[in-house]
Amino acid sequence: MNKTLEEPTKPVALKLPSAGSLIWRTNDIDWQVCDEPGFWVKPLIEDGSKIIRTWLMKIDAGAFSDLHAHDEYEQIYVLSGSFYDQDSEYVAGDFIVRAPGAMHTAGSKTGATVLLFYSPE
Known about the structure:
There is one protein chain. This protein is mainly β. It has one domain: Jelly Rolls (Sandwich), CATH 2.60.120.10. It has no helices and eleven strands. The chain has strands at residues 2-4, 21-23, 32-33, 39-46, 53-59, 64-68, 73-84, 89-91, 95-98, 104-107, 112-119. The strands form three sheets. Strands 3, 4, 5, 7, 8, 9 and 11 form a seven-stranded antiparallel beta sheet that branches. β7 and β8 (89-91) form a beta hairpin. The protein starts with a strand and ends with a strand.
């Protein structure tokens, strides 16, 4: 059975379901400020250890993040706009996978929305 989360039970992010399906109306979730200016997230799924994460990320036009890495695999699907790293520029429909520890930058000249998946090695 599907369950739609409504106030006041709405968590910061969903936990992985133990059975069935969970549905979250993401238009009702506020964007949260990231550590880097111009980067905003809507955490969708985070398991207890925060090793598995699914986020929507909005990148403002002109935002840039310095060289960094993640301990997990990072999978990125560009939903709208375009963003870039030190290697290339990516547009809506592009899919990128980074290995744990892969150093990269991130930024957008015009703004972008991406779907991020983080998972362990």
